[in-house]
Amino acid sequence: MIDAIFDEFLRNGTDAVEEAVRKAAADEIMPRFRQLAADDILEKNGPHDLVTVADRAAEARLTESLTALLPGSVVVGEEAVHADPAVYDAIRGDAPVWIVDPVDGTRQFVRGEPGFCTLVALARGGEVYASWTYAPALDEMAVAFRGRGATLNGAPLHAGSPAPGAVLEVATSHPDYTTPEQKKALLGLNAEGVHARPCGSAGLEYLDVARGALDGVAFSWEYAWDHAAGLLLVHEAGGADLTVAGEPFRITGGNALPFTAARDAATARRVRDLLGGR
């Protein structure tokens, strides 16, 4: 029964998801943008891992609205997993799962910068079937459906390929979030013909890859809420991803890290090799 419900939803029910994402941002995030009080901001795992009242309120709103849209579905949200890590196991289950990052780029949001977004992906059995990347302060909504392409504000997205001989622009894991071993791997990007910089919002970096404004990303962590939406967006725009083991990234975990997503397969292989790929 769930197969038929899921398939029907993908065919005819997804417009309501975009509405739900926009509504959560309009009601819970944007009224707090540049209006946060000191006690609206908390540390989760140290000064570089922040959460705000906007994150929690938006995730609660999306949890309610998304599960109502698709009976039998569950939510794996960043803040719910922080409260109960067992919630993450649903990604490996059979039920349709909404993977939610209510405010991706919380540090930018806290600083009053517009470079943050809400990420929602719909997955089942470890495969991502649809995704929504919404940057409310930039008025950008990117949507992707497996096998059906990707759009930004309704216009098709095409990642294209870097110009021959051009310096590759690559966004990487921020040093605050990397181990010494991961830092060593990422140093491989300090190569001729490559310009690497720390990433901002992961979701917006993926969007830039999908529209050809960034050549690739190289990340060293695998929380699905940061990657599921963006990886589908890049793939449906014609891009590719690889772990250092030469395998596609799995949202269920157990990946060899770091991994890359890039505008095309050749660029993904080049970045993977620079990371010490095998």
From TrEMBL:
The keyword Hydrolase is annotated on this UniProt entry: yes
Keyword presence, Lyase: no
Residue spans crossing the bilayer: none
Alphabetic keyword roster: Hydrolase, Magnesium, Metal-binding
Reaction equations catalysed: a myo-inositol phosphate + H2O = myo-inositol + phosphate
Pfam families xrefs: Inositol_P
Assigned EC number: 3.1.3.25
Name of the protein in its database record: inositol-phosphate phosphatase
Organism the protein comes from: Streptomyces solicathayae
